[in-house]
């Protein structure tokens, strides 16, 4: 039974965007009579929490021991069920957390016995562990696939400072082009080149030697913008053009955008003397509906 002051009842419950640092602050603190609210506070008494806790997480029911929720200090659950805060209950008396409960079972299993989620749930459980600020679980998931793989991939993508902007540009151009033409598909020209390779047909055999001997002032002569919608490159890494194309397709598909690509030749723009741009050009086809 909780009797609270009028002032306290007006305050909200836990916030969706709660982070680890403010988890404690955001929860409703019991009202301590102060000179300003003492008059209005008739009685304040927090209930004794039971040993077995029934939970309603976004409509999904769970049952666990109080000790499980208190397993690690500094987590949002430990703060919520510390006995120092008011936790709302549903019509059946279950403690209510206004959060999608799909992955809450994975969180509980970790708190119960250190069980880890299967690989396909790791990404989503990580998000939940962030919400409930469960540091030990975050540390372990961080070292699991696919999160580790994502870090390795990101280290490569960090070489391209405009990678994200370029993705947005692909989406924007594709959208406008399809709307303008009332089309189901949109086609874009995208240049993806790992290194500069302006060569003449005669130079092919010595291409590697040429590339490394070229001075900086000479390479300036080859700088230009290919006539494409978006251009990625150059970069210095083992990962090649196909790896970057894989990243682009994966990241667009994460945004729900289906894209196919094929190489449609090289830029072939005349640069200087007998030099032509040999950067590969890809046609991206976005299917909107
Ligand atoms: Zn070019």
Explain what you see:
This protein is of the alpha/beta class. The chain has 2 domains: 6-144, Potassium Channel Kv1.1, Chain A; 163-287, no CATH class. It contains 12 helices and 9 strands. It has helices at residues 6-9, 23-26, 66-69, 76-80, 104-113, 119-131, 135-142, 147-157, 163-181, 207-213, 216-220, 241-254, and strands at 52-57, 60-65, 95-97, 185-192, 230-232, 258-266, 270-272, 275-276, 280-287. The strands form 3 sheets. It has a 4-stranded mixed beta sheet with strand order 5-4-9-6. The chain has a 3-stranded mixed beta sheet with strand order 2-1-3. A hairpin with a 2-residue loop joins strand 7 (270-272) and strand 8 (275-276). It is elongated and about 85 Å long. Mean pLDDT is 83; it is low at 1-25, 30-43 and 204-210. Bound molecules: zinc ion.
List the helices and strands and how they pair.
Layout: H1 6-9, H2 23-26, E1 52-57, E2 60-65, H3 66-69, H4 76-80, E3 95-97, H5 104-113, H6 119-131, H7 135-142, H8 147-157, H9 163-181, E4 185-192, H10 207-213, H11 216-220, E5 230-232, H12 241-254, E6 258-266, E7 270-272, E8 275-276, E9 280-287
Helix pairs in contact: 6-7
The structure holds zinc ion (ZN).
Zinc ion binds at residues 224, 226, 267, 269, 277, 279.
